[in-house]
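Deliverable D4.2, example record:
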Amino acid sequence: MDGIRAINQVIEYIENHITEPIDCNIFAKMTGLSLYEFRRIFSFAVGMPIGEYIRKRRLTLAAIELLRSDSENITEIAVKYGYSGQSAFTTAFKAMHHIAPNSLKKEVLPIELLSKPSFEITRTGPESIPMKIVRKGSFRIIGFCGMSDENDTDCCEAVWCGFYENGVDLKTKEFSEDGKLYAVYDNKQTGGIRCTIGVKSSESAENLVETSVPDSEWAIFSLNGTDDDYVASVYAKILYEWLPSAGLTQRTDVPNTEIYPFDMESENFSWEVAIPIKS
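Output generated by the structure prediction step:
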């Protein structure tokens, strides 16, 4: 129930601040999630990334304003909805509505309306979920690192691409202590998520970034496959249902970690989501 209420509050906040700069970090605080978790769950709930939703809501309202306004000043409306000028606004407007804003002023044509969603509580039965609780000492990840912001289509997609395109996957494999691949999501960085992808290792290597993960107790959940909707739905259940049902509280000072096999070719390979919890 708290999760449904939190997402509705985010939607309302966006509507009330739609013509202002919006920092997505505030949504993480509103929902009690890390920025990474929030972006995953929002995409699952709404059907698109947070950045795309805000952009399309602004363009929807801008189109309605153009249709109803007697003013011919397109630049004024463009600036109101966060665009630097008429050129950038026209490009985005045409991509969504398939018509230029000045044409919309001249003839009656349909626009693409993105409505404001709302969510209601539905009753579901209890689930039996396998979960491990383990204590792990601090460890270090070496590999590839990058930032992900709200404009990414998939969270940290660019970082994963960089990890493979730069050959870091092959270089890190020889340093792995357990034959597994780790993705660490540090949400303490302002303006986005710092993603580190690599292996657990006590060694250092040239041109590989190092990230330390503190000692913690962890709740570990097993998943099969990486379909984005499936993963986002599991995250939502972990954070809003399963952890509270177990009386567990997530730590916010330790980054979430995902643990993968190096071989991810099979369609439903097994991997793990590790959530740091308070002892």
